[in-house]
């Protein structure tokens, strides 16, 4: 039996939370692996122990710098005390003095994204630009220090390999249809009321907290164009966030997007639901007409798979990651073109046959992703590292 130590301190939002929520139950169900997982305080109450899963609560730290220092100082002893065979570091940064072979999960496209750096400069957000540069240096060093680095898509693995000069393995993230649709708890009453007020409208859904790289501004500008193109039919852009900096994780300033909504007179068209409980998300997907994402940087994009599995047609920016994940099941557009995004939405909204084909293709494509397969491949890699030789 292999003993896997998972450092999940960085799992606080977005893909990190999705990863832990889905992978841990599969590990807990297996009798050929023991798991010790280290999580942050907010995550501690959510993760459940079992016969072969031990949950450790990490000390409270301030920001990613504090977390990095805590990991480097305290984790070697935690890993030794647990008597683990392999360390799985899930937060982009490796443990530099790992006492056991280490698998690094790298899933932050911002460190390699020229578009993100350009965006930060244009916004004048030089503090975040400097922070990103410093973290990128650590992330690159981490890839070189780890025994093996895993990326969630082949496109991002290739990008990391070119960037770091070291081999990177692709193990696709997964999707568990049964688990995703199992919770029948309805959406919160205030969310249901907001959705009811959009009856009869073309509902566009975008699942994300606010950040720069998800490119909200292009989507907002496309909504303004659609308001004219689709008149008299109403259009509603459904967001799972609020355009307020204090209500989103990270150091992103959402007020510029909120101001754009006001300038374009879209206060009725942009519906800010706020964060939706993960277990209830499937209700929201099925309540909408199209899923749209203009993101200009991505590593896997779980909402794309969730949308496809929910039968929601997808229109996505033409990133290599998006085309890899969705294949022919989605329609694509250049990420910085609100005009072409609006055109795609108009074409899809006016063709019942097209939406039906996209829906069927998406459901089929979503079946290609499996958390069980992901865990199998991850454990195969861990067993290889347990052998006498480490991967170069």
Annotate the secondary structure layout.
Elements: E1 2-8, H1 14-28, E2 33-39, H2 41-44, E3 53-57, H3 63-82, E4 86-89, E5 102-105, H4 114-123, H5 126-145, E6 148-151, H6 154-164, E7 169-170, H7 177-180, H8 189-196, E8 202-206, H9 216-229, E9 235-239, H10 255-263, E10 270-272, H11 281-287, E11 290-293, H12 302-309, E12 314-317, H13 320-326, E13 330-333, H14 338-349, H15 352-366, H16 371-386
Parallel strand pairs: 1-2, 1-4, 2-3, 4-5, 5-6, 6-7, 8-9, 8-11, 9-10, 11-12, 12-13
Helix pairs in contact: 1-16, 4-5, 9-14, 12-15
Short description:
The chain has 392 residues and is of the alpha/beta class. The protein has helices at residues 14-28, 41-44, 63-82, 114-123, 126-145, 154-164, 177-180, 189-196, 216-229, 255-263, 281-287, 302-309, 320-326, 338-349, 352-366, 371-386, and strands spanning 2-8, 33-39, 53-57, 86-89, 102-105, 148-151, 169-170, 202-206, 235-239, 270-272, 290-293, 314-317, 330-333.
